Amino acid sequence: MQPLALLAFLWVLLPFAFCQDDTCAIHGRDGVSGVPGRDGLPGTKGEKGVSALQDMLNSITMQELKGEMGIRGFPGEPGPKGFMGAQGPKGFLGPKGPRGSSGGIDGSGGPASKKPAFSVLRNRADYASYSQPVIFDSQLSNVDNDFNLKTGYFTCKVPGVYYFVFHASSEGHLCLRLKSNRNSVSLNFCDLNPRSLSAVVSGGAILQLFTNDKVWIEPFTKSAAGSKMPKSMSAVFNGFLIYHKP
After folding, report:
1. Which CATH number is 117-244 given?
2. CA–CA separation, 131 vs 168, rounded Å?
3. What is the DSSP string of 137-182?
4. What is the model's pTM?
5. pLDDT per residue rounded down to tens, the chain (246 residues)
6. CA torsion angle for 18, 23, 24, 30 (degrees, to 10)?
7. Hey, which residues does 176 pair with through a beta bridge?
8. What are the boundaries of each domain within the chain?
C-alpha cells in the first residue's frame, strides 16, 4: 500500500480507536441512519390463563356477603292488556239440572190444556138487532167452546190478555161496537153509506180479561129510524188468548 493511501485509511479509523463502552469521543460524529429491518419472527406461545374456578369462587364470596332481604315494596301499576289467547278446549258436559215446574199456556204456570181461541161466521138471512149481540150460525174453530153461538157471547175462562177482531158487510149504514162488561169497554166502528151500497166495517182490540168476563159485538145506529138493521149482515168474529195472566 502506498504511504498516502495508508495514511488516509488510518485517518478514517482513528475516531473508533477512542470509543469505549459504546461511547465515542467527543470529537466524533453520528453516522447515517440505516434502512428499517424486517418484522421479527412470531413469539412463543403464552402461559395458560387463570381457571374459571376463580370467577366461581368470587361469585360465592359475593353471595356470602349479600345482606338480608328487605321489606317488600308496593305493587306496581297494572301493565297493558295483552292479546287474547287461543280458545281453550271444550269442557265436559255438566250434570243434569233439576226438573222444572209445569208450564202453562206461555210457561207461566197456568192451565196448559186451556188455549182459548175462536173464529165464528154469520151468513143469516134475518136482520140483526141494534144494541144486541150479533148471533152467528157457524164456526171455523171454537176451542173449549168458550164462544156461545146462540147468545153471541165469548166468556173468559182463562184470565189473561186477548186479541179480538171482526169484519162485517151490509148495505146502507153499518155501525158495530166491540163490547165487554169489563170496565164497560165499548169501541165504535162505522161506515155511513147514504147510497145503500155494500159497506164494510172492521175493528179490533187487545183486552185484558178476568174469569167470567164477556166480549161480543153489536150493531148500533146514530138515529132513531128503527130497532133493527135495514138489511141483513154478514160477519166474521175472531178472538184468541195472547198470554195467560192470573
Report:
1. 2.60.120.40
2. 16
3. -EEEEEGGG-EETTTTEEE-SS-EEEEEEEEEEEES-EEEEEEETG
4. 0.54
5. 555 566 555 555 555 454 555 555 556 677 788 888 888 888 888 887 766 666 666 676 666 666 778 888 888 888 888 888 888 888 888 888 887 655 554 444 445 457 899 999 998 767 778 889 999 999 999 998 999 999 999 999 999 999 999 999 887 778 899 999 987 889 999 887 666 677 788 999 999 999 999 999 999 876 644 555 656 788 999 999 999 988
6. 160
7. 189, 219
8. 117-244
